[in-house]
Amino acid sequence: MTTTDLRIGLAGTGRIGAAHAETLKSLPGVGSVAVADADAARAQATATKLGIDFAPDVETLLDSGLSGLVIATATDSHPELITRAVDHGLPVFCEKPVAADIQGTLAVLQHLENSDVPVQIGFQRRFDAGYRAARAAITSGELGWLHTLRATTLDPAPPPAEYVARSGGLFRDCGVHDFDIIRWVTGREVVQVYATGGNRGDEFFSTAGDVDTAVVSLTLDDGTLATVSLSRYNGAGYDVRLEALGSRGNAIVGLDDRTPLRSVEPGCPPSTSPAYPNFMERFHHAYTAELLAFLSVVTGEIPTPCHPADALEAFYIAEACELSRRDGRPVRHDEVRR
């Protein structure tokens, strides 16, 4: 199969799904794109707007001669859609997470054990040029040995209350990207976490049993220390960074003229460029790169660059963070493994 033969299906036409559909349509070698959604009218509107194919439901989509399937639906539908597509012999790209909880993730992994159909999970930071450069600097030994990693994911404004109620919480929904990328850039595993969180914003976070701001301390298996700072209320703008600090040097991801940081030191003028408003704009190129990688997975040119087992490891860290926050104590990674 060549890329000119590819017909890619997409389930879910919300914000990220519609963006993926537009990207897929523009990628070289994609012959056609077809979309479906539980809200058929929304899918049809997306198809009409983009000039792509519409399927009235997922079953029709799966039977429409697809080369691969992109899943951008609500989290609770991911396990069924992944397994149905795999059973149809279709390579899958699925936005994180694999499932809403560890048990569901393990069930999907068990289903995949006897299949050679590839599944790629959407952790787009792995395809961002900055994170890739940091990984190269760390793995090459350029930075020496790492003593500290600092990661931040700071949203400019919170998502809607209904989203928060179904999100799984700040660690599983937001921090999981930082946990995955720390594992990926270092090649190390997290062995212990200590997490704390607070609520100073809207009441719906507390109502959902969630926090709107959190700080996590991580210990990696080689002794490296890492911190992750998370917030839904960073009024200066969308701020996602990683600082890798080593015995010989450092590598900083996300530090450019659009980083929403303001120096108050004399003689340091503020940036004249606007801050990134959201993750879609900040990671536009990374989203394109990961879908290009998925096309190579579909054609068998490369193995999946982000296996569901990787998503499970990040989910374990998020689960340990939630337990740590609730109990007010350090939690070892093996306490939540199953």
The number of E-state strands comes to 13
Distance from first to last alpha carbon: 39 Å
* Gyration radius, rounded: 20 Å
Count of individual domains? 2
Percent strand equals 15-25%
- CATH architecture level-2 label of the largest domain: 2-Layer Sandwich
Spatial sequence of strands, sheet with the most strands: 12-11-7-10-9-8-13
Average pLDDT taken over every residue: 96
The CATH topology of the largest domain is given as: Dihydrodipicolinate Reductase, domain 2
Fold and architecture overview:
This protein has 2 domains: 3-117, NAD(P)-binding Rossmann-like Domain (Rossmann fold), CATH 3.40.50.720; 126-280 and 314-335, Dihydrodipicolinate Reductase, domain 2 (2-Layer Sandwich). It has 12 helices and 13 strands. It has helices spanning 15-26, 40-50, 58-62, 78-87, 102-112, 129-139, 161-166, 170-186, 203-207, 279-282, 284-298, 308-327; strands at 6-11, 30-36, 53-54, 68-71, 92-95, 119-122, 146-154, 190-198, 213-220, 225-231, 239-246, 250-253, 331-332. A 7-stranded mixed beta sheet has the order 12-11-7-10-9-8-13. Strands 3-2-1-4-5-6 form a 6-stranded parallel beta sheet, with helices on both faces. The longest helix is centred in the last third of the chain and has 20 residues, at 308-327.
